[in-house]
Design brief:
Radius of gyration: 43 Å
Strand order of the largest sheet: 1-4-5-9-8-7-6
Distance between the termini: 88 Å
Low-confidence stretches: none
Strand content: 15-25%
Order of helices and strands: HHHHHEEHEHEEHEEEHEHHH
Shape: rod-shaped
Bound molecules: phenylalanine
Helix content: 40-55%
């Protein structure tokens, strides 16, 4: 029995020394010292010993047990220390390793164009206003001298929210003319960029949502000459000092007289090419002198004040500026497209 216990001790100590982790140590403890362990089953046999042998054997058994326990505790400490050391090493941060570059986005080409425009107008003393995309028909049409049953108010062109056609997605940024005149003290110099909506099918040149920028000046003694001079200045800052412009008569319900502004094609110099669709000219925007009725609708006396306004599509400007041939590219957020700018 003595030999058996000593042999168990040797085996246990050897196993403890070979153990590489605390889990193994625990299974060694169970194997030798556990309730159903080797030592326990030896001790159970103590009953068969004589009364003289029993105390010495019991003493030895206890010694061996505490020896194994001591070995286990010691090994556990060593292993835990080694594990901590390993963790410290593996989790250490090497600040000299080159970092992985974070992909930073950049401004969308259309917003670059818008920013350029904002800078130009702010430089001339215009303030930037923001208005609602969900608008009252009163602001989008009626107060802009576009009465009920005017063809521009057709259900086929406009997204209405209500049966009575009172609430809609604005079809233009022009309602901001009304909002500015109602809310701002005179004189007014403002621009207002934003989204507008029309029932158009998506194709290379159409989208049911697009962007416009509205501009308006209201003051005493403002004339068509101011409109032309200001817009000429803006166009030259965008397209270059030598850009040739053309103001062509047009009609809008809320301006009188009205015009459209074209620039001579910067690609072909006016001979006609794919960029200007053979026209030699590129249409840029609609404009005009604010209609006296519109001024009156906003409580402004047209005999004292006058003003001019313009509205311009932003997508078209970006397409022209960056030689983009499909409007859809502006909205699709394809990185391969956007990264070119
Ligand atoms: N709102 C007009 C359009 O969408 C443009 C415009 C604005 C014309 C202001 C004249 C004055 O076509």
């Amino acid at each position: 029995m003595k030999d058996l216990m000593k042999k168990l001790r040797e085996q246990a100590v050897e196993a403890i020394h070979e153990a590489q982790d605390v889990e193994t140590l625990e299974s060694i403890r169970v194997k030798y010292l556990g309730k159903k362990g080797e030592m326990t089953s030896v001790l159970k046999k103590m009953g068969s010993l004589s009364a003289e042998e029993r105390p010495a054997m019991g003493k030895l058994a206890n010694e061996i047990k505490s020896e194994i326990e001591e070995e286990l505790a010691q090994s556990r400490r060593t292993l835990e220390e080694r594990m901590l050391q390993r963790r410290l090493e593996s989790e250490a941060v090497d600040v000299t390793i080159p970092g992985s570059r974070i992909a930073i986005g950049h401004e969308h080409p259309m917003y670059s164009v818008l920013d350029k425009l904002k800078d130009i107008f702010v430089g001339m003393g215009f303030e930037i206003l923001e208005g609602p995309e969900v608008e009252l028909a009163d602001y989008n049409f009626t107060k802009l001298n576009t009465p009920e049953n005017h063809p521009a108010r057709e259900w086929t062109d406009t997204f209405y929210f209500t049966e009575d056609s009172n609430i809609l997605l604005r079809t233009q940024t022009s309602p901001m003319q009304i909002r500015a005149m109602e809310e701002k003290p005179l004189p007014i110099r403002m621009i207002s960029p934003g989204r507008v909506y029309r029932k158009d099918e998506v194709d290379a040149t159409h989208s049911p949502m697009f962007h416009q920028i509205e501009g308006m000046v209201i003051d005493k003694g403002v004339t068509m000459g101011d409109l032309k001079a200001t817009l000429n200045l803006v166009v030259k800052q965008i397209y270059g000092e030598n850009t040739v412009t053309r103001f062509r008569p047009h009609h809008f319900p809320f301006t009188e007289p009205s015009c459209e502004l074209d620039i001579r094609c910067h690609k072909c110099g006016g001979k006609g090419c794919p960029t200007c669709k053979g026209e030699g000219w590129i249409e840029l925007l609609g404009a005009g002198m604010v209609h006296p009725k519109v001024l009156r609708n906003c409580g402004i006396d047209p005999d004292v004040y006058s003003g001019w306004a313009f509205g311009m599509g932003l997508e078209r400007l970006a397409l022209g500026e960056y030689k983009i041939n499909d409007l859809r590219l502006i909205y699709e957020n394809d990185k391969r497209f956007l990264e070119q700018f």
